[in-house]
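Regression test attached.
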Amino acid sequence: MTKQKDDIKIDYKYGFSMPEKSFYKAKKGLREDVVRMISKIKKEPEWMLAFRLRAYKIFLEKKMPKFGPSLAKIDFDNIYYYLKPTENQANAWEDLPKEIKDTYDKIGVPEAEKKFLAGVSAQYESEVVYESVNKELSKLGVIFCDMDTALRDHENLVKEYFGTLIPAHDNKFAALNSAVWSGGSFVYVPKGVKVKLPLQAYFRINAERFGQFERTLIIAEEGSEVHYVEGCTAPIYTTESLHAAVVEIFVKKGAQVRYTTVQNWSKNIFNLVTKRTHCEENGFMEWIDCNIGSGITMKYPSVYLYGEGARGEVLSIAYAGNDQIQDAGAKMMHFAPNTSSRIVSKSISKEGGRTSYRGLVQVAPGATNSSVFVSCDALILDEDSRSDTYPAMRIKENEVEVQHEATVEKLGDEKLFYLMSRGLSQADAESALVLGFMEPVTKEIPLEYSIELNRLIRLEMEGSVG
Amino acid sequence: MKFINVNKQKKEQMLFDQKGETYVVYFHNISGKLTFEITEPEIKLYIYGLYTGKKSDEFHIETIQLHKSPGSLSDLLIKGVFEDRSKFIYQGLIRLEKEAQESHAYQKNQNLIMSKDVFVDSRPYLEILANDVFCTHGSTTGKLSEDQLLYARTRGLSAPDAEQMLVQGFIDEVYQKVQSHNPEFII
């Protein structure tokens, strides 16, 4: 008897969209006057305008990446590069416009906040509209605000670091972001301060054909600790949309930063993000990167280990369903002695989805006694799907230990049979195995995110099993 | 069982098309792009490569294990020992086409770096288009184990002798594997 394939489509969980109510919308397409106008509206200092204009020129010169999935469908002329939702930032939840509040209520920002969040900074369209920073954090000298506010209130700090780790000429999308960036978070943790609760920001895109170009900068001074969480959910649209973010993180001597992303863009979005960390002596950087949504994601969080004893970690999950390509990975660059790095990647492809791990590990001369561990596991759930692994290891030093391993397999028949013999349905058995496969990464994520992630995966699994 | 010494045959494109046959392939210090194409089921293909780089030796090697039919196995092991200023650039690809269900494909690259000026670039790639398969690849690059060296020296070996013994043992794995298939395979 042949199994009947279930055609029922499960609604995209966050597939709702609010009527647009924006105060200002730039014209479609990118021209120099659009860049100038963004800077003018934001009342930015002269150096930032110069930075944007330089980046705009670089953007025009740079070619599209030569590797990975095709980005030919991105129509740069058909995108709004700036959108300002409301005139002023609201200080309290009650002051937010109703549509925005409704949108957040559906994602659950207030609930999340109740659950001991240190501060919630919610990004709606291109600017942070709601933000509450825990009083204790301010007392400790921690700055947690949106990038535009940071540029206004902490200009010198921003100027010192902004664009120094990911310059505009790094790649085409970093250049684009540098030219038209808007919103994003700024986090500054003073020396020795340990922020115990995770700082969170919710991101949403809510205007059709509108690209979001947020810019995040995190500075963790000597001996400090911080955990930043970024979650994305976006409504469904019919036309292509672009998300090109830049995230720069500075981890000073002995500091620890953990950056968690749960990316669940709708399938029409190109998610092309550049993320990089500069890690000094005995610093520790962890990227936890979960890519569930988007049509095409290209994202390779990296750690540049410049100081002796610095450590870097990337834990990543990629899930590609129908019409999705997850081209994710990690980069670890060892420049100093006794540095170590670890990359653990878990990917799942299903219903014609395609996952690729693309990674680079480089050990420069002088990075003696460095160690590198890379592990990539992939699950392919049906015969239409595909999984690729493209790691590169460049070793220019002999006092090192570099290990890489990868496996690709399907769900074990014996395991499925066992679970089903214990009374689980096939769908339940499959999702139990998939969740177990991801667990080494999901257990590192804050609870409410990992619950949501597990729920999403289960939903995706159930949608297809006949 | 068939034995192919690539150094002697000097062929870069190799076709494996006898159903149920076992093939053993060996090569030493060659550069180029080797394609191993499996077009029939139930084939067992073992590939062994050995690299010993000295002075300014430079090797660029690319291997492709291409499975086009179901139920076959390919197992690749490339080991290298690099001294002085030698360079080793390796790119290995396992590609399982849609038709290659129930295949097993393995790829392993292990490199020993004996000097500071060595450069090793290892890229073990996988492209898997079938779902009912099992694939693994692994790559390790490093120096001789300090513990093993220390042990050998506590047993009375001089430092150079201990080093040589460990390197010999590392290389011997390749010879032993080739001859485990048939002791008459001489390389």
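Expected vs. actual: identical. The mean pLDDT of chain B is 93.
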